[in-house]
Amino acid sequence: HAFLFEGDRTSLEAVRAPLSDLQGGRCFYCSGRLQRDACVDHFVPWSRHPDDGLHNLVVADSKCNGDKRDFLASALLVERWRERNVSRSHLLEEVARDARWDPGHPRILRVARAIYSELPEGARLWDGRKQLVVIERERVLRALA
After folding, report:
1. Are 112 and 140 in contact (CB under 8 A)?
2. What is the pLDDT of residue 1?
3. What is the DSSP letter of 119?
4. pLDDT for 62-93, tens place per residue?
5. DSSP letter (8 states) at residue 134
6. 98 to each of 5, 42, 132, how far by Cα in Å?
7. Which of the chain's termini has less CB crowding within 10 Å, N or C?
8. How many CB atoms lie within 10 A of CB 13?
9. Plot region of 130 (φ>0 → left; ψ -120 to 50 → alpha; else → beta)
10. Considering the entire predicted model, what is its pTM?
11. Quick check: 116 and 144 in contact, CB under 8 A?
């Protein structure tokens, strides 16, 4: 309880606009146009690992962010996240430098590998609004390799 609710959390507002620009003004999850109420989301949920590193942050519309909550993302979304982090690594590093923000890479990649590799068979992962799917372990771990 103290870990989740009593400590001060860092405001993510400083990286919302640059991440939104990096994502072309689109929600990371559903690709819909971002509105003013867009949220910075921890791809690997804060409740699983408290990491504000830039490589762990994406911008999502408020509906996707609210629906994802503390779920881990599906294989498809993990692939999208890794692709973004690899293909736009130099841009993420620029944003981190300009905002004086911890880039968090490769730390978050190691954390994601550890979390996903320990999930039980049949674990359900978030695949979009109101959608949970069974883990595709090999696909997820390939994406995180």
Report:
1. no
2. 44
3. S
4. 999 999 999 999 999 999 999 999 999 999 99
5. E
6. 29, 20, 37
7. N
8. 8
9. left
10. 0.93
11. yes
